[in-house]
Specification:
single chain; 265 residues; alpha/beta; Rossmann fold; 7-stranded parallel beta sheet; 8 helices; 44% helix; 15% strand; globular
Length: 265
């Protein structure tokens, strides 16, 4: 009888364990689902206990392996707990995607100290905290990959968004510094810089600015590709950065914005 070789599971992330913050919605959700589709076990860390569990269960229903962890990413103890629970569940951590983020659309004069502190805590401090607890775990197992979420407005300024722009610019340089510090441990660190993407956060921006959601979507059509981005498209960029396809890429910022910054000075 002819003997056929054993069939191996498909997917470029088979055998990998990923922790995704902000995985209950938007880009985080799309990325968590894509990671699972590609074979990774995925821990979804989010403060949203209403949307997070259904996303996790959806992955499980499709044959994936997932875990929901309630986590306020601005708090050290909860970030440490998220990493610990991930390792407790699967024994290791290969991938960290810092997808959690918030925005406050306001100038310096309109931004309160409390709003400034909250944006910086969720968008920047969280990246520091998750990396602080994840990197030792990755180093013990021979390496790993970290992808942080910056923004096109982390590379150029944006109107009425001082705290958001400052936070995302910080993420860009934090990413580069981490890449320099941990390359010798075989830990690659990169960030994505999305443009306008059709997420709940983008629609919340419209509410903050007091304009119709449709107007924000229409304004996105001014970019070269003439449309707003989809979370699934940004997730594909994250997948590239955590996969072996980008094995010689670290310390970089991947712009995913439909060409919006192509003509920026």
């Amino acid at each position: 009888m002819q003997k056929y070789p054993e069939r191996k599971p498909c997917g470029i992330l088979v055998g990998k364990v990923a922790l995704v913050t902000g995985g209950a919605s938007g880009i985080g959700r799309a990325t968590a689902c894509l990671f699972a589709q590609e074979g990774a076990a995925v821990a979804i860390a989010d403060v949203d206990e209403e949307q997070g569990p259904p996303v996790t269960q959806g992955i499980i229903n499709r044959g994936g392996d997932a875990l929901f962890i309630r986590c306020d990413v601005s708090l050290a103890r909860e970030c440490e707990h998220a990493v610990q629970e991930t390792v407790k569940q699967w024994g290791k951590l290969d991938i960290l995607f810092n997808g959690a983020g918030i925005t406050r659309r306001a100038s310096v004069l309109e931004t309160t100290e409390e709003e400034w502190d909250r944006v910086m805590a969720v968008n920047v401090k969280s990246v520091f905290l998750l990396a602080k607890y994840a990197i030792p775990v990755m180093a013990r197992s021979g390496g790993g990959t970290i992808v942080n979420t910056a923004s096109g407005w982390g590379l150029v300024g944006g109107k009425d968004a001082v705290s958001y722009c400052a936070s995302k610019g910080a993420v860009v340089l934090l990413t580069k510094a981490m890449a320099l510090d941990h390359g010798a441990q075989n830990i690659r660190v990169n960030c994505i810089c999305p443009g306008d993407t059709d997420t709940p956060m983008l629609r919340n921006e419209a509410k903050q600015l007091g304009i119709p959601q449709e107007q924000v979507i229409m304004e996105s059509a001014k970019r070269p590709l003439q449309r707003v981005g989809r979370p699934e498209e940004v997730a594909q960029g994250v997948l590239y950065l955590v996969s072996d396809a980008s094995s010689f890429v670290t310390g970089t910022s991947l712009v995913i914005d439909g060409g919006g910054l192509a003509g920026s000075e």
